[in-house]
Amino acid sequence: MKRPVTITFAGLAAALAIGAGGGVAGYSLADGGSPSAAGSTAHASTSSAQPAAAAAKKLSINQIYEQAGPGVVEITVTTSDSSSGAAPFGGGGGSATAQGSGFVYDSSGHIVTNDHVVEGATSIKVELSNGKTYDATLVGTDPSTDLAVIKVDAPASQLHPLALANSSSVEVGDGVVAIGSPFGLSETVTAGIVSALNRQIDSPNGFTIPGAIQTDAAINHGNSGGPLLDLSGKVIGVNAQIESDSGDNAGVGFAIPSSTVKSVVAQILSGGQVQHAYLGVSIGDAAGQGAEVRQVQSDSPAAKAGLEAGDVITALDGDSIDDAASLTAAVGAHSSGDHVKVTYTRDGSTKTVTVTLGTRPSSS
To answer: What is d(CA 228, CA 257) in angstroms, rounded to the nearest whole number?
Structure first.
């Protein structure tokens, strides 16, 4: 990001700022619903080689709703106000409930949503499009990408899995449709276009989520965890955040790309902990080309390799690094334990060092 922002989880009912920023506009996690406990505050929180819009026959918005709507669910979570962490409800005493969205991932009952929708939940209920409600269990979460998987024990005949599209084929200007439960209004459909690609948004645990899809489709509190669909009715992203002065829709929403969803969900379902490659630096855009190192975490891979604050990273494994976003994406494309060559400049000299990437810690 080139300017400070306030990060707010637009997940469940009212907006609640949780990040520091310049007070201009903020990213809101897009869940939704209404807190039911007095004194509590809700968090505001595949593949094809063709472009997404041309990968299959384009459908009308009504056809997309008819095809994909049955696979979108409303999620109601209950939390205790004593829950630790950046709970989406805050407040004191008793418990609170709020709603978010999700979509059916497979016929086994796995459902994809946002981590901030289910964070701190003591109980989770899922309402299918047919109105039937089931208790859900938490399978796993990845705060670094704000994704989570929950599971319902429902008959396969009542489950309508949605297919993932290839988000790398999405282009600016492609038409998109969002389905979810803004403010608890289930099965709400909005439409728009892809406004921009490769945006960076902040995760609940303070890391950067690269490759986010920006859209002007209306996204409000309650949409978090719901699908952003292409015009063939496939999922290109998971709606997660909005940027807004008011905390409500201002035509700038962000979805976590389906390529990230596919990778993270596969790791969650395999039973393992989701791992992300870790360099261990705080960075910003350099005055010219490259990513400037603002801070090096102690005992991190970068520190062990001798990188220092003020260094400007210009290449990773020979590929040019244009700015902070491209470095974040380049590191994210690797796995923990990979050996990478980092080229950087310091005091007018260019140096290259081999770094063994680590595993990202639980918080930044």
So the answer is: 9
Structural domain of residue 329, as residue ranges?
A: 277-359
Identify the active-site residue in 203, 224, 232, 300: 224
Annotated catalytic residue, options 43, 110, 116, 276? 116
Asked whether 29 and 180 are in contact (CB, 8 A), the reply is no
Q: Which of 81, 115, 146, 285 is catalytic?
A: 146
The overall longest dimension of the chain from CA atoms, in Å, is 65
Beta bridge partners of 188: 180
Helix or strand or coil: residue 38? coil
Q: Where a domain ends, among 252, 274, 296? A: 274
The mean-pLDDT minimum among 70-74, 106-110, 164-168, 329-333 falls in 329-333
8 A C-beta contact, residue 251 and residue 220: no
> Where is the domain boundary, 233, 259, 274?
274
Measured in degrees and rounded to the nearest 5, phi and psi for residue 87 equal -65, 145
Q: pLDDT value at position 52?
A: 43
364: in domain:
no
Give domain status of residue 31, yes or no. yes
Report how far apart the first and last C-alpha atoms of the chain are (Å, whole number).
16
Least confident of 2-11, 55-64, 134-143, 304-313: 2-11
Q: Tell me the C-alpha distance between 7 and 20, whole Å.
A: 7
* Verdict on whether the full-model pTM lies above 0.85: no
DSSP run (H or E) holding 258 = helix 258-269
pLDDT, the chain, mean:
83
Enter the tokens of residue 39: 């004194």
- How many CA within 13 A on the CB side of residue 281? 29
Catalytic residue list contains 146: yes
Tell me whether residue 339 is one of the annotated catalytic residues: no
